[in-house]
Amino acid sequence: MSTFIALLHSIVLTPDRRVIMEDLRALAKELGYREPRTLVSTGNLVFEADDMRPHELEVALEEGFEEKFGKHVDIIVRSDCTWMALCGTNPFRDGNGDQVIVRVMRLPVDPEKVEALKPLMTEGQRIAVVGGDLWIDFAGKPSQSKLLSALTTKRIGIGTMRNWNTVCGLAQMIM
After folding, report:
1. Euclidean distance between CA atoms 128 and 8, whole angstroms
2. CB 3.0-4.6 Å disulfide test: which of 9, 24, 72, 120 passes with 160?
3. What are the CA-CA distances from residue 132 to residues 60, 66, 84, 109 (Å)?
């Protein structure tokens, strides 16, 4: 048995309805996963499962989510080992925890797509690709950056963003 982390790209089902974390934990149990627990109400799920490849879990979770909630949502799964490795790769540890964000990717981000983001960066912002994931230090509120709106699935690929505080919180849950 292994520990896994699942990151939902979105918990918004309709403009006025979101997935409740209790329902997300219930879905994990229905799929046969053990000890499901969540961190904050933004689609961060930690659970135990038989040794499986993360992609197999992604498919099962995405299909289960769509069946239960009526909407497809991209879900990225990482094993506890790969999550801890991701934690060790933050190139911007000197940044503020709520301003440093990693876009956890299903497949390694294309370096050409990252280059296309650079003209949108403002003074103080930093960007790096480590292990196929995209790290950004927004050096301010991400919501006030032109860069944030460019980090779409269509433009960058399937992935989801988490700030450094959340990354660390999930690491603490699997220790």
Report:
1. 22
2. 9
3. 23, 27, 15, 5
